[in-house]
């Protein structure tokens, strides 16, 4: 239920914000906002993962920070909000929690693609999922986020952004580019944990 309710509320908000855009562009923005990586980022901003009670297996493998689990949990929260408060309450949740991802997706609907691509690449290679290491600096009103991504035995970054998701996406892009366009040295070198910038 949560995915359907959220999808409707987001579609309504996207149309309200961008009434002049073609239908295809509106659909791209909506899809970006309700994508698993985007929902996971919103869940982390609450932070929802700290409230999840998982089985021993998932807990031991970092399930509280897995995109798929966080996205499902957020959809469950939205379903509960709908059952308790109806459509108006869901609109309030979307307005408050999704403001950043709505703005980012309107500028670049493909913003979340590189994290997804990198995760799929790791799965195809039978590597562990990418792991993101995040730091930040600066005052609250002008904070900068710095991300490294560890995948296939290497670390890529750091990448900097004005939000966590932008920094992580840029780090994922660096890693993706390195896999797609390896240098001659990297192509002949086993993955041994060296850092790539």
From TrEMBL:
PROSITE patterns: DS_RBD, RNASE_3_2
InterPro entries in the record: dsRBD_dom (IPR014720), RNase_III (IPR011907), RNase_III_dom (IPR000999), RNase_III_sf (IPR036389)
Keyword tRNA processing: yes
Residue intervals of the RNase III domain: 1-86
Alphabetic keyword roster: Cytoplasm, Endonuclease, Hydrolase, Magnesium, Metal-binding, mRNA processing, Nuclease, RNA-binding, rRNA processing, tRNA processing
Region described as Disordered: spans on this chain: 176-197
Domain DRBM stretches: 113-181
Molecular-function annotations in GO: double-stranded RNA binding; metal ion binding; ribonuclease III activity
GO BP: mRNA processing; regulation of gene expression; rRNA processing; tRNA processing
Family: Belongs to the ribonuclease III family.
Matches recorded under PANTHER family: RIBONUCLEASE 3, RIBONUCLEASE III
Matching NCBIfam families: RNaseIII (TIGR02191)
Protein name as it appears in the record: RNase III domain-containing protein
Organism: marine metagenome
